[in-house]
Write a structure and sequence with these properties.
By secondary structure, the chain is α+β, with helices and mostly antiparallel strands. The chain contains four helices and four strands. The two termini are 34 Å apart. The model has no long low-confidence stretch (mean pLDDT 96).
């Protein structure tokens, strides 16, 4: 099951500084051994709410690969270049199982609520 990394990224001044550019030049090499790839990156069109900044969307083969990359010595060495020069909200989320529907999810929640109220 794929795992996705979403980074809500804000770069002060809108343009990466020297350290930020150094991070960008090095990060791909840290991701490749873990099967990670970029799916989207850039400005967003906000249709509801607020989203100042840009987005980075990446895919990893699974949660273990994403966590192994994030905690790898190679990434840990360059992570301060991002953390100290940009504002990031970084999350991991797993893909949905085959056959998932939102309606089915709602039905599961209803069943759990009903079961809890019967207890």
């Amino acid at each position: 099951m794929s795992t996705y990394l979403i980074n809500h990224l804000r770069i002060p001044g809108g343009v990466p500084n020297k350290e930020g550019l150094s991070y960008l030049e090095q990060v791909e090499a840290t991701v490749a051994p873990f099967g990670g790839k970029w799916l989207a990156q850039g400005e967003v069109d906000v249709v509801e709410g607020a989203w100042p900044g840009t987005v980075v969307l990446m895919e990893f083969p699974d949660r273990a690969a994403a966590e192994a990359w994030y905690n790898s010595p190679e990434y840990r060495d360059i992570r301060p270049l991002r953390v100290n020069n940009a504002i990031s909200d970084l999350v991991l989320v797993d893909s949905l199982p085959d056959g998932f529907t939102v309606r089915g999810f709602a039905q599961q929640v209803r069943a759990m609520v009903a079961q809890a109220s019967d207890s």
